[in-house]
Amino acid sequence: LLGWMRLTLRIRSFSYVTRKLNQCRGVAEPQYVTAGQVVRAQALSKMVARAARHTPWKSLCLVQVLVNQVLLARAGIAGQFYLGASTGANIDQPDKALVAHVWLECGGEIVSGKIGHQQYAALARYSWSCC
Fold it and tell me: Quick check: 83 and 100 in contact, CB under 8 A?
């Protein structure tokens, strides 16, 4: 799935990939999921991160989060992911004018992209409901 998602992002637009998701601005209340679903989401996220470390290409946060979203939706687990940005100077990368990051939340817990997400301002939120 990591390779498929990376290829899809290369030949299609981000809006094409997220066309079936609800796009909202800002932060929202977490959707209800059970504790078991959060544990399953965390396990899936760890599996995707582990696989991403072994791809011959870079599978950065965007690709990992989109793969996690597909897996969670297939498992019937609701969630949302945030697209954030920051100036490079704000995160110790003064040579970059703008830096982006994506993180995924399930039941109020960040299950993918957690490291450093506080340094980014959420620009958009994409959610899916599996109720």
Answer: yes
